[in-house]
């Protein structure tokens, strides 16, 4: 039904449009196919829908108000076949920017992360609020807002056809299967781009679609180990440690969502979608940044430094009486100020510590002196004393303290949304502010299959009988 | 390694940039054409049709047509000019000389021009991402030394001219390819005027000054969007443009400390550690480049640019992801786990005789396979360790048994033994090993480019592969002010007298 009328606008101009603009064109076309009528209705609703339900979202500040304009990706529809972290993070970023995201989940349990707890959110409706089968995990809730959930068994013939029908109605498809898997099922880039040449088909894998490791599954922590990040993270002289969050998954999600928007921009010129091939390994390698460059350009291997800096002293975490504090004296002036705050005024005059070069040379002795002094008072004493002195410092905040940070709150980085079974839940806000087309949190993370009927009826124009049959065939 | 063709092409480009009036041989002109096509399309997406459909791409006529097309273009098209996407020969600089240059179309941001007032890491990383995608990036640097990171070494790249004292730091070289450098003293009246002139010719402006600073110089969002309403103005700061911390300078490591990342990274009983690379800067750069793309996309609908406000603090908070969610939704605080996993055992780095290995047995089957490889078959039958739940309970004892066994052999032995056994594992590669990883090489993640003063240098490739509009590395990180004359002459059409007087007044 998205076949293009040869007598109408050129293929190029049509393909360059989003699915929504195509529908708007058809709306004004008298010859519009009868089958489209229900779809048109839904699209019209979609277009006219309020961009957020402000009553559901509380975060204070301007993001809680009705946005002036729809988000930058308003009108873009994303078919999301990803699970776990990198993929769902990518599609949530697109959703936050205004795209309509349709998450395809297997009918038996859906995205693995729905079960990844504890912690789970309490179910406010269940008579037994602790029954885990009725609870949503904090993991899933953190990365699946602004999405609709449709259950499809893509291994059935009918399920496959359903995904193909949806792909025809979407601008973007994102998947994170091992390379070749979706091709086998008739859902690869080649097949789907024939059905919808404007489709931007994005693959997120551990090692990419090519090369000797392509068929290996990807795990964040394995990539951290394999691609240098773990080697450079940890105490000097200690064992390597991983980053406290699956950062390789997250940078890959960030790369992927950027690539999708770049491809959307390119589509405006070329009229055509394309295949985008992202991987954890490639993303991790480039985010070695300057560390990579020191090796590639000067052959300098990296090492673990704890929190300290190879060429600036002091610039590291130091112990206080009850905790730790991060202090950085980036130049000699800042070192003098630090010594004044610490009541160690004689130190900057000492030849052993006067310049940064001296301090790097006598690192151990100096760190011992500073640590000894810092351990005489509590963290809060030192934080107060360092305030506004002109030297960089920071407490080592835990997660609770992070979310109580006055700037984090002032920037609306905690928002409250209403969830159908968990009630009010808190989620992180949107880190980038747009002065015009604002990113928003419009709908909570969906229940499994919450939107199956709606999407099949309104977007695909399936009738009740067909939907019932699909359900009986266990295709949805 | 360069093919001769691409080397010629680059030298041609260099001349083009320097506007040396040396006529090219027909052969060179032909080689140059794709690059020239790109130069011609540097119209913030407006004159491309004129440029590429004329067919003649002779170097001599380029400049005039460029000017004319720009002058006559007044309509603000909502979309990019529809451009024939004919396949063009490549000038890409891949390391693989054996590979015939594939037919390549311009990158997705071809025709977009970025004015880059950022320094150090987050901002330059953002604008390099845009450059890799095909945008023309004009980096504005202060005439006295430029971007701080030019001096951030050792390590420095060795100058091919042994007499020279000019060294480029590995740091600067890592985040500044695909950019032109112009020197401008933005604190001078003439310098500010020059920025205004450039703002009229660009699509995107990226800056990382403390909030209010540029505004006080007349270069804030309001001032510049009055000059160019289509301008996408992106600010990257430590704490954002608003709120009680807005005026503090931002440092990656302070944000790692302040926003939870350091607290959750390190050995379970050890002190917090930072991530081995300035990851908060990098995630912010990633957020910012995507935000610029989103705003460009929105501009096609609205016809207007906007102010995009990014910060290290918020990017870091957002990338707490599931860790953040466990706290926000269930009040669960996080802790340091070394490389261990709170609910899967074994899933961590373990010691071998000479090094370490990362092993993850995500389920009971994988644990059985692991035990077979380690010749500890009885272990998976032992009720203390049979199921993951048991293994979590008896974590310490199990890790001790596994470590004892693993320490009996070298890393190389175990890596070999684990291969193809269905247990996730990985060596802890250092940077050297990472860049000799067969998959890293197969994915072209190391590329070699030619730099004017340091010769051949290696840089990381582009991580996302596009089937059609491919990102590319087109030019090396620029020398300080390398393109000042080129940009002032060709983009702003300043004449020699004007440029001379700007130089004398130290505005450039």
UniProtKB/TrEMBL annotation, chain A:
Pfam families to which the protein is assigned, alphabetical: CoA_transf_3
GO molecular function: succinate-hydroxymethylglutarate CoA-transferase activity
Positions of the UniProt region annotated as Disordered: 1-71
Domain of life: Eukaryota
Annotated GO CC locations: mitochondrion
Keyword annotations of the record: Transferase
Ranges of compositional bias, category Basic and acidic residues: 18-36
Protein family membership: Belongs to the CoA-transferase III family.
Record-given protein name: Formyl-CoA transferase
TrEMBL record, chain B:
Key words of the record: Transferase
Start-end of Low complexity biased regions: 83-98
GO cellular component terms, semicolon-separated: mitochondrion
Coiled-coil region(s): none
SUPFAM superfamilies with a match to the protein in the record: CoA-transferase family III (CaiB/BaiF)
Keyword Cytoplasm attached: no
InterPro entries: CoA-transferase_III_domain, CoA-Trfase_fam_III, CoA-Trfase_III_dom_1_sf
Sequence segments annotated as region (Disordered): 80-108
GO molecular function, one term: succinate-hydroxymethylglutarate CoA-transferase activity
UniProt record similarity statement: Belongs to the CoA-transferase III family.
UniProt-recorded name of the protein: Crotonobetainyl-CoA:carnitine CoA-transferase CaiB
Organism from which the protein derives: Lunasporangiospora selenospora
